[in-house]
Amino acid sequence: MTRRIGATLAPHRVICFRSMTLMPEDPPGSRRPRQTGDDQGTDLPYPEGWFCLALSRELAPGRVLTRRLAGEDVVVYRTRDGQAYAVRPYCPHLGAHLGAGGTVEGRNLVCPFHRFAFAGDGRCVATPAGPPPRARLAHHTVLERDGFVFVWRGPDGTPPGWEVPGTAQALVVPTASWRTEVRTHAQEIIENTLDYRHLPVLHHVAVREVDPPTVEGPFLRMRLRLGPDRPAVLKRWIEADHSFLMAGLGCLRVEFALPSLGLVSYLWAMHTPVGPRRTQLLVATACVDGREPAGAGPSLLRRPLHRAFARAMLWIAVSKVRQDLTIWNAKRYEPRPRLAVGDETIGYFRRWARQFYGTARSHGG
Fold first, then answer.
1. DSSP state of 360
2. Cα separation, 220 vs 36, whole angstroms
3. Pair 181, 59: CB distance under 8 Å
4. If you average pLDDT over residues 97-122, what whole number do you get?
């Protein structure tokens, strides 16, 4: 059942610039986050949810990667049978970092220091000499979806209560990608999507709300009609309805169709908090044939077109992100923004986002 937060948002909203104050209300018993100084704004805690640590294609069988999540290293690896795992980085024997020379042998992760071997459930199952000790690696829950490897971050190690939805096209995986580190919170980046007002100002993109934001638990969905604000002939050619899905604060997926080309395109933006006010941003794109049945692979003749269009989409998306980076890397988080008419979606988003801070809400949810 769709649950709405706050006032109903009217479709086809006309953005006005009359100033007024619209501040999100606090839930009962919550406290506003502590101010850390005029130049710092407010420090948000690390959010909970699913966060992307790698593209599936980066994690070939036998490969071991070290990635950052919420100020800590996470070691991600894939066993020879294709299963992906993520563990805390240090061997419980004598503390060697498993991402610094650790190897995969069959279905086990092997420590580079003394060759203690750990099974997929974290148990130490072998040593070079004698029976293994009662030792276990601390594991993260892993979800692999649409060519991305996600890791769950929950309060006090609680298991996930939801999953990132996959696309309707079963064979969709990103074919082009780009990443960068941003000096801001993950929430600030994904909130940008709800800030319609900045699109024509910063990006010269015309925006029209087709379906207003709606909340389904950890998911937020909406549909916007986007296109260049000039010239008019170009706007008519490539203006399209874009369906947005936010799965927590770590994953944004955008889908839109171009019937004139027979294509359906996907864009993902993954926001992974790696340190205080530092977020790893991954942008990826894919393109599929909109005239083929769901799950059908592209024809050999159209496959180069799909890849070329995905690369073009990525180039356009990255050019817009680079404009945002100038703002994100210098701005601060405003816990009590003075919103204006036309900014209702920002307040709507912030009320939805509070659920991803759980027990940490009193420090900045």
1. G
2. 30
3. no
4. 97
Give the amino acid at 93. Answer: H
Map out the domains of the chain with their CATH numbers.
Answer: 49-153 (2.102.10.10), 176-363 (3.90.380.10)
Q: Whole-angstrom Cα distance, residue 353 to residue 361?
A: 10
pLDDT over 50 at 157, yes or no: yes
Higher pLDDT, 106 or 238: 106
Pair 263, 273: CB distance under 8 Å: no
CB 117 within 8 A of CB 110: yes
% of the chain at pLDDT higher than 70:
81
SS3 187: helix
Question: What's the pLDDT at 289?
Answer: 84
Average pLDDT, the chain: 84
- pLDDT at residue 228, rounded to an integer: 78
The answer to whether 50 touches 164, Cβ cutoff 8 Å, is yes
Chain centroid offset of residue 198 CA: 21
- Beta strand pairing status for 108-110 and 117-118? antiparallel
Long-range contacts of 87-93 (CB under 8 A, 24+ apart): 87/118, 87/122, 87/137, 87/138, 87/139, 87/140, 88/137, 88/138, 88/139, 88/140, 91/116, 91/137, 92/124, 92/135, 92/136, 92/137, 93/124, 93/133, 93/135
d(CA 321, CA 254): 15
φ/ψ of residue 89, rounded to 5: -75, -15
- Whole-prediction pTM: 0.84
Bigger pLDDT: 232 vs 303: 303
Residues 6+ apart with CB under 8 A from 147: 55, 56, 57, 172, 173, 174, 284, 286
pLDDT reported for residue 128:
93
pLDDT tens, residue by residue, 254-288: 999 887 778 899 999 999 999 999 999 999 999 98
Place of tokens 């990667």: 65
